[in-house]
Amino acid sequence: MLELAIGIILGGCALGAGCAMIAGIGPGIGEGNAVAKACEAIGRQPESRGAVTTTMLMGCAVAETTGLYALVIAILLIFVAPGRFVDILMEAVK
Amino acid sequence: MSKAGIRFRITDIFLLFMTILPLAAGIILKILFVPASDGIKITGAHIFFKIALPLGGLPITEAQVNSWLVMAEVLFFCLFMTHGIRAKVYTKRQVLAEWAVEKVEGLVTENMGEYFRGFAPFIASILVLSALSSLMSLAGLFPPTSDLNIVAGWAILVFFLITFYKMKCGPLNYIKSFGEPVPFLAPLNIISEVATPISMAFRHYGNILSGTVISVLLASALGGLTSLLLGWLPGQLGEFPFLRVGLPAVLSIYFDVFSGCLQAFIFAMLTMLYIGGAFDYEKYLERRKQKQARSS
Asked: By the CB < 8 Å criterion, does B168 face chain A?
């Protein structure tokens, strides 16, 4: 019975981590758009290349934030959460 | 060579030595005190020891020690660069130092306005600390920026600065700004105010940590692949992970060097933009005029 409970915990954590990373779609689309527009801008005005690239990198990094939130949650779910949940379960069983 | 010249040389060599010393100290500390893990594992910062305090122990972790080492490195490097500068430029070193200072001052005045010229040293130190902390992983050390505590400390400092400069345009205005555009949105405004340091800290830490995690996963995957492909080689040769040599370095150039430097730049840039955006110079002047009129 205990094995089953621990198995459910581990499986739940892994599934949760996977689901959290669905958030990776958002930054992907957003950054893709940003880079596409930057390419257009450079194509139109090649002399503004430096400024456009800096601004684009800046914007990309900010757009990435939501993806990184998901990543942090996923990392916590994989590396930290199972141990804690199993500890809680063991306390409860005692 | 004159006596002063010799003394100058000796100080030079001493300072350069002190720049490299922290790195060596970090590696020695790591070899001596951090236990080697069997296989490839992802662990947090190793806790060296705990200082006993009335409210729980204060752990001194690898991340903290490494960030102190980076600070020492930066300090001695700055001393080395500015050692023996003169009003009239005559060394390459001074040209380089002046170029760096001018670059940072230009960046700050361009993004924050002339009023914030004094912020250049602060921005420069954030930039250099963050970049060097991330680059620490090239020497095999624990990069302090992949620990949330270190980055959160910087982000909280920036948050205090933002609030300070918002208050400077009038505390009443600051409180009123939460009730805009409609008063019942105040909770959302407060959340977005608090979200600034959180998002800054998580962005920096998440980028560096994800690089570390992906590098470790790739290294272990390459180890498995070698034993699958070249496991038939006789004796010691079969156990040696050939694919792990060199290949992860390509990834490391992106994750450690490029990503680390980019995140440092972005952290400094966001600091400038947030602080510069928090301060309304015209409002500040108006308020000062009113104050002076009242007092006189």
From this structure: no
